[in-house]
Amino acid sequence: MKLKKTLNVALASLLMSTLFSGFAQAQTNATNPISKKADVILQNGTVYTVNAKRDFAEAIAISDGKIVYVGTNQGVKPYQNSKTKVVDLGGKMVLPGFIDSHSHVTAAVETIFSVNLVGKESREDYLHTIKEFVQKNPNLKGLKGFGWENPVFPGKGPKKEDLDQIVKDIPVVLTSGDHHSVWVNTKALELAGITKDTKNPEGGVIERDDVTGEPTGTLRETAQDLVLGIIADYSEEEYKEGILAYENMAAEKGITSVHLALAVPGSNALKALKALEAEKKLHLKYRVSLATDPAKGPSQVKSLVEERAKLNGPDVQVNSVKVFMDGVIEGGTAALIEPYMDKHNAKPQWDPQVFNETAAALDKAGFAMHVHSVGDAATKETLDGFEYAVEKNGKRDSRHQMTHLQIVQPSDIQRMEKLNVVAVTNPYWFIKSPGYYENIELPYLGEERASSEYPMKSLINNGVKVASASDYPITWEFDPLFGIQVGVTREEFGNTDPKLVLGPEEKASVADLIASFTINGAYASFSDKITGSIEQGKEADLVVIDKNLFKIPSTEIGSAKVLLTMEAGEETFRDATLK
Ligand SMILES: [Zn+2]
């Protein structure tokens, strides 16, 4: 009975308009008395709903933070009363709020409380910046910092002696821009007890002097952990400041949901997030991956299940765990099937057997795995583990995710589709950046592999669901509009040389990129019932943009402006120019 009514209504709506087909819901409302007037109406807009049919609409009505109507300017009228706030969009574009499917939100604490080397381009610049910070902060008990780049130190990483010249008596630990290496001074090595006799930990490298074997000051991958504890972590209060700073930046960029890609139970960072949730100060949806340890295997699943139960709340929810399967190309720590051009290679960080058993146990416990996989050998081992989990547990709605995916074998793309794996790509990185591409990726990978890195369109063409992410703070400017532009153009802003387009055959469409930053991100985080598209019944997570992304040249998408961001109907950002 109900079905028939809906069908009739849908037919009627077809007759009324050929432009807007997203009507079934709207007209269903029109035949029922409207019980609830809208708090807010957005009208006269270009609303790209990202619903299953990818419909456009003109108007949205919002009540109690939820979308109660999507349709025409005419159809929204009955929702208005004297208290309704009406926003006339003047044709501007509305999209679902953006979802960043892999970010390290809590790292924003570093922007306030440590030395920032981002954007500095030489060793001298780094040292100058560090010196200034130390002079301004004379009472430090340890110095932390971030943002130095591997291309500044081709071959071997930076040296302890440079830091010793500035700071001798307190430890210095500076994290690289990709977060896969640290640069330390002699004091830090001493406090950590790292000497020439210290063995490289599993999955890590202590860089050494070729002659003496003494550590030289760069620690890569898991070797970073050796110095983790020697400078006190930021306090819960400091993290709270950092998270709120992140929220402001995210709102300006139209983001309404974020996947916190690595959370350590009991850490100050996670405590701060939960404290802000309890204080009702969060204005983003947080989906969290808990850290896993390759050394602990399946035995860690029980405590992860307990942590999940403890942590789940209204804004912060745990659906997944983070797995590091390998490192990064820049550090020579990504696991490749064919060795690097200099003939070295790195192994995946998990023993295959241990990974299989852990994957099966996590899958059975209802965790999605969010796997850092850069090299094709890492991707192979990961997919083997997912396959093993299916063999053991049967096919579940697992939504395992693989992220970064720099070098992928075509046959593995098909396996990803079969296993319903979500690819979490980083369109921000789809460029031939002179520092990285020329100096590192080409010499490390060779022309053929380097030019085929970061596939996106072939994933989509093979039916793999693709979400997008910044990996903030790795991507410092984590603006999704910028990500959409680079995903479509695969070149740097302002580039005019066709040779500097990275894999033109992998260019995805504007619609592909929008879906990756909205509905597919919602799917990856099991939130597609409440967000990711503009549909009746979902939360009003929206972004208003000054230009129609489908109507402007792709090279201008990144310069479009966010005018309004709304999370669950609440304005989290409004540009002064929007009346
Ligand atoms: Zn990350």
UniProtKB/TrEMBL annotation:
Q: Which residues form the Amidohydrolase domain?
A: 85-571
Report the GO molecular function annotations.
Answer: hydrolase activity, acting on carbon-nitrogen (but not peptide) bonds
Entry keywords, A to Z: Hydrolase, Signal
Signal peptide interval? 1-26
Q: Name one Pfam family in it.
A: Amidohydro_3
Q: Which domain of life is it from?
A: Bacteria
In the UniProt record, does the keyword Flavoprotein occur?
A: no
- Annotated protein name in UniProt: Amidohydrolase
Upper taxonomic lineage: Bacteria, Bacillati, Bacillota, Bacilli, Bacillales
